[in-house]
Write a structure and sequence with these properties.
Elements lengths: L1 E8 L2 E7 L14 H6 L7 E8 L5 H17 L2 E5 L3 H9 L8 E2 L2 H12 L4 E2 L5 E2 L12 H5 L15
Parallel strand pairs: 2-3, 3-4, 4-5
Antiparallel strand pairs: 1-2, 6-7
């Protein structure tokens, strides 16, 4: 994997990822590849990663993304992945990485997520525009009549044993 900084605008960093992302990309000293490219304050940035040049990733890459997301959250930053190849997207969706790391269709959608995050709204994948923590959707509470109804039984009714 190769990470290239495309642009830096205040705290927004555009990064382009290229090549397979696998265990070979992570050093034994545990240094995050984002730290190598962005420096020691890497987790304080809003990082938009263009994934169109990544044809494959393995479990090490998933672990790296999840640890990076946690570090971005702790550091006050954010990571958003966009333009993901179908094969890679399928793996990310299967493992539900989008629940933790926003996965969006293109750079414009990624910038919407960054803007929303700055306003205090966290976005989730796969649609890339579903608020997660802003205002949870109101769910209908079960009515008292539904909650009070006994569950149907099959076969003979059983007596409860008295102790």
């Amino acid at each position: 994997m190769k990470l290239n900084v495309v642009s830096i605008e205040k705290e927004l960093v555009r990064v382009q990822a290229e090549g397979d992302i696998s265990s070979h990309d992570f050093t034994p000293d545990g240094r995050n590849p984002f730290e190598v490219v962005l420096g020691s304050r890497w987790a304080a940035h809003q990082v938009v990663v263009d994934m169109r040049g990544v044809p494959f990733l393995d479990s090490s890459a998933i672990g790296w993304l999840m640890h990076s997301r946690r570090d971005f959250e702790r550091g006050g930053g954010l990571i958003v992945l966009h333009s993901i190849q179908p094969r890679v997207r399928q793996i990310l969706d299967l493992l539900r990485v989008g629940k933790a790391v926003p996965l969006v269709e293109n750079e414009t959608a990624a910038l919407v997520v960054v803007t929303a995050a700055a306003a205090g709204v966290r976005m989730e994948s796969p649609a890339g525009a579903t608020p997660v923590h802003a205002a949870p959707a109101a769910r209908k509470a079960p009515t008292a009549s539904k909650a009070a109804r006994p569950k149907p039984t099959r076969g003979k009714a059983r007596r409860s044993r008295a102790a």
